[in-house]
Design goal:
Blueprint: H1 9-59, E1 68-69, E2 82-83, H2 84-88, H3 128-132, E3 136-139, E4 157-158, E5 179-183, E6 188-189, H4 233-238, E7 242-246, E8 251-254, H5 256-264
Parallel strand pairs: 1-4, 3-6
Antiparallel strand pairs: 1-2, 3-5, 5-7, 7-8
């Protein structure tokens, strides 16, 4: 009878080594593919949010949602605070009425929380911050940075009857260049008047949910959301690591520099400081 020869220990170790080498080569490629796929899904969901803004305008005399409409004593009195996610939620969900802090029920199946790369706070929905931060933020400067526009009444952020207002869709000028919604660490995108690569207040030292206070003047975008892990601050500044919805309805991946210019001076070229 013919004797059957098995694997030697050396041969087995060689095979294991080859498999381990192949895995080490393939895993980064698979991770990159996953990030790319999630970025595409995020862009698609941003476009759907853009459609929701248009649908809102069609039912509200041509005006778009504001980033925040705070509750205040008045006059006139406003009892319930509203924010842009609950304003557009009826157009992306079967439910028609929401408050800004009771959106949990559509979190799992709504494009308002549509970025697969956004990681929800480990604290769950127990905290108010987690319930109102949806992974996307709205900028609220329709014409604030234009000459003579730097006053509270020119913000799409209402804190009193005389501070902020609703803007018509056509007032968001240069729509193909003006950013509206983007990957963000908060529900809004606060934007400093000056910004550049050497600014001490850059947003990518922390993730979508930071455990530390956010300094005044920070640019509230989530700069490295779609980049590889452990990307440096300098790399993130010039890489297209976040997605942005523009006022004409298209969405694109942009860098921090491009995002700031799209809010601060759309169609005005690069105005960041050195």
């Amino acid at each position: 009878m013919r004797k059957i020869r098995g694997f030697t220990l050396v041969e087995l170790l060689v095979v294991i080594g080859i498999i381990a080498l192949l895995i080490s080569i393939l895993l980064p490629s698979l991770a990159n593919a996953r990030r790319s796929s999630n970025s595409v899904k995020c862009l698609s969901n941003l476009r759907q949010i853009g459609t929701a803004f248009v649908m809102y305008a069609n039912e509200n005399k041509g005006t778009w949602p504001v980033a925040v409409h705070a509750a205040y004593a008045g006059p006139p009195k406003n009892d319930v605070e509203r924010r842009w996610p609950d304003m557009v939620a009826p157009y992306v969900s079967s439910k028609q009425q929401f408050k800004y802090d009771d959106l949990e029920e559509i979190r799992a199946n709504s494009v308002v929380w549509g970025c697969p790369e956004w990681i929800k706070n480990d604290a769950g929905s127990a905290t108010l911050a987690d319930r109102v931060r949806v992974g996307y933020g709205m900028q609220y400067y329709p014409n604030y940075f234009e000459p003579g526009g730097g006053k509270a009444s020119n913000l799409a952020y209402i804190t009193s009857p005389t501070s902020g207002r609703y803007f018509k869709q056509v007032e968001w000028k240069n729509p193909s260049d003006r950013g509206l919604i983007a990957d963000s660490i908060t529900h809004i995108i606060g934007t400093p008047a000056t910004f550049g690569p050497n600014s001490p207040m850059m947003p990518f030292d922390y993730g979508p949910y930071t455990t530390t206070a956010i300094p005044a003047g920070t640019f509230y975008v989530d700069a490295s959301r779609h980049l590889k892990p452990n990307v440096t601050k300098t790399q993130a500044y010039n890489s297209k690591g976040l997605n942005m919805l523009f006022c004409d309805g298209h969405a694109a991946s942009v860098s921090v520099r491009e995002a700031w210019n799209a809010i601060h001076n759309p169609a005005g070229g690069d105005q960041t400081t050195p």
